[in-house]
Sequence to fold (848 residues):
Amino acid sequence: MIANRVHDLYVLENLSDKDTPIHRLHPGVKILATFVFIIVTVSFNRYDVLGVVPYFLYPTLVMSLAEIPYKLLLSRFLIALPFCAFAGVTNLLLDRQTAFVLGGAAVSFGLLSLITILLRAYLCVMAVFLLIATTPFTSLTRELRRFHVPAVFILLIEMIYRYIGVLVDEASSMSIAYKLRSVDSKGIAMKHMGSFVGQLAIRSMDRGERIYAAMMCRGYSQPTHGHPSHSGPSIADICVCAVLIAAFLLLRVFPVLHML
Amino acid sequence: MHDTRKPKQSVETHEHPHERGPVSIDINNITVKYSDGTAPLRDISLHLNAGETVALIGSNGAGKTSLLLALVGILLPEKGSIAIGDVPVDKEHMLTVRRKVGLVFQNPDDQLFMPKIYDDIAFGPRNFGHGEEEVREKVAAVLSALGISHLSNRSSLKLSGGEKRVCAIASVLVMNPRVLLFDEPTAFLDREAKARFLGILAGLGQTRIIATHDPDFAKTVADRVVVLKDGRIARDSPASEGSVTLL
Amino acid sequence: MHMADALLTPAVGGAMAAVSVAAIAYSAAKIKKEDFTNSKVPLMAVSGAMVFAAQMINFTIPGTGSSGHIGGGILLAALLGPWAGLLALAAVLIIQCLCFADGGLLALGCNIFNMGVIPCLFIYPLLFRPIFSRTPSPKRSSAASIVSVIIALQLGAFAVVSETAASGIVQLPFSAFLLLMQPIHLAIGIVEGIVTAAILVFVHNARPEILTAAAAYGKTQAAADGKPRSARKVILVFAVIAAACGIGLSLLASSYPDGLEWSIAGVTGAPELAAQGAAADALAAIQERFSFMPDYDFAAGDGTGTSVASIVGAILVFAAAGGAALLIRFAKKSKRAKAQS
Fold:
């Protein structure tokens, strides 16, 4: 059960060593485009369903160009959805004024904002998933060096990413061992959580010491590995980036569907 | 912070190209104490000739790991001295020692700490200030020498115990050490992986200390077997001599 | 509770990101000063990973039949000290955002602030440390963690509500949302506080030096600087910045319902452009549309014709996207088939 979640953690990144036009794009380009995409999509006001719709083209096209299975991403999106869905439904209930009548049925503002929230959630989540599914994790983190993120912090992110797998494995086998010896197999009893996580914490601190020793043995004195793993973006990369960002912004300033 | 900043003691780590061979180890009556007063090692003296392989055996808590950590200067002895070839193990010569001595940890998960194997193996050379191009060549060379080039881009999470072990060894060999220390190298290994490890070991020329709790394994790999008990050397004999027990 | 991209405006998300980046940069600079920064990084990494793993452990709450999981801000601060705790937690949140879309990229600043900066930089130094470190004992560490976790969660929930309200995407009134969130998080806080207390008592009994070292961490730094109260000062500064941001955002949100729309107009100079060129009519039409949606007061009859056309357009977009996707898939497949034959 816990182990599944580890699988979930790395499953997207497993897709990132494919070789497609999207995977070959420079990581910096993808980071920038993703940021602009998200900012632009959430900048529409809460009733503007039509403004947001054209942005669907981006995740759909990227997904098929990068050969990412849509079912996988969709199921991941559904897991991330509840909080937004809840907020959207409160809008539906609170905002009942009719916006317009469509084929005899009144469409309320609340419904419009519910739809926008769901659309926005879909687009934002997909943009992030596609970023991680088409870019190896270390290429992403090393690219952050170019955005002046401190080397210590990058090293920290990479090491946590690595040790989550180890620690979750450990927690998982501990919890299996626990459940095999307990009557109620629903979870750890709250009164045992202290020693359960406490054990995990102390072992982790010890492990931290050993890792540090192993790093020192190989001459570690300070984080030096901040090199971006890619060279700078090529002209083609820059062009793609410019076109994408221009398209996102143009669709924002000239919402085509409103013009029909 | 500069990416390519060299270690502070880089001048001292300068190395003559012909100095490649194995070196001797001299442990001269050392005692190591922890801050809480317990002493994992007491009055240890041990000499290894260049190229010799010694197996260090003993039960859990006998001081095997502590001795290996003392040899790389992670634990500094309270009294006595250690020398790797003609370099004393002390604060002043730490980077030289770290370059000459490679330690393969008991648990590869402690040693492989990056998301990708490539970065784990490149970690040492980068720390010693080699440029990216040179690092790439060194990593490629060691990967192909150990027959694990296909693992370069993988995450250590998806490797088997045996593969992880070989990667951990690669992360140490890439630095061209003259002395190799192994802490329980056969722990978590199945028979096949163990055989593979023995094959790798046979191809290496360094002076070696291998800590293990497996007397049979010790006899197959070592010239000499040293038995540690409660932080002291209880016995030191050629591997061919009689039956070795944990005492 | 993770804040989500979809409920934020760029202005709110951006402002909170700025606050969190400042907090992270400050913490990184702070731990860099210490001699043992480098030994601290592996420790922070494994502790962060440990909290990530611990968050996945569902435990059963006696008498309720429900289950809970821990948050980890106070736990990390207690194990690592406030600065290192914040960095580790921020890194964990970044990984969760990327791999699970917990929250989202734009909401990252909010989430790091709500779940990291509040417990590590405000609650830990102001509540946990004073309660715990006068005479460190298991009893004091459990009192400190229960109080700290409850207050940290209350503030975190308050922050979520404020950020949502400032964005104005969700129409639930501020007070109603608050009434919903605070009690839920009080219950969560009590449970999480008790569990965190139990964990820290276990650690305290096994290795008292871990907690006392972490507690001494920021303090010795302050003493070494010769500014004994510097930690408090910093916290005060952060509190003022956060409050200022909050107030500023609410004002911005009320006067410009849509931050980016306003700034795009500023950058491109759309109004002036409209007055000059041939595009004037088109732009005027767009502006009409812009105002057509947000305002409640338009006649239903007027809108129907245009919205039908627009809805057809929307359907066409979906069809085009789907068609293109199918086409690409088909092209790739036939290419592969060719390569194989």
About this structure: The CA atoms of residues 182 and 188 of chain A lie 9 Å apart. Chain A has a mean pLDDT of 84. Chain A touches chain C through 124 residues (CB under 8 Å).
